[in-house]
Design goal:
The protein is mainly β and 131 residues long. It has 1 helix and 10 strands. It is globular.
Length: 131
């Protein structure tokens, strides 16, 4: 199942949490570039992996799409796979391009705008209080 969001979607939106991850308990190799999907005037997300406080989601953004400012309770790693975008961290713009990786600690206000069509891999990690 692939989730398509129109206009301002949230990366932590739980409406796609029931989605069956692409990776299960069997070894599997995929091409992230080939798996990324796009929708005109939308944002497409696909859960690749989910287990033990970790969730990995592949996103495809159409040019001009954005996620409005929000926070997440998770550690977040963003890898830009293709294209470029503007991430706003506490309101400060940062241009990210294919090959760039961004780390965001829990609670950091952030937003993203697609300067062009781009794809990214988001890894969310929930750390238990005992860690």
């Amino acid at each position: 199942m692939t989730c398509i969001k129109e206009l301002s979607a949230r990366m932590d939106d739980s409406s796609c949490m029931a989605e069956q991850p692409l990776f299960t308990n069997e070894p599997k190799v995929i091409s992230l570039i080939n798996e990324a999907q796009y929708a005109p005037n939308g944002i497409v997300s696909r859960t690749l992996f989910r287990a033990n406080g970790t969730r990995q989601v592949l996103f495809g953004f159409a040019e001009g799409q954005e996620l409005t400012e929000h926070t997440s309770p998770h550690h977040a790693l963003v890898q830009i796979l293709s294209g470029s975008c503007e991430f706003f961290l506490k309101g400060e713009p940062r241009t990210l391009r294919a090959g760039d990786q961004l780390y965001m600690p829990p609670g950091l206000p952030h937003a993203v705008q697609a300067k062009e069509a781009f794809s990214m891999l988001l890894t969310l990690v929930t750390v238990s209080p005992q860690s």
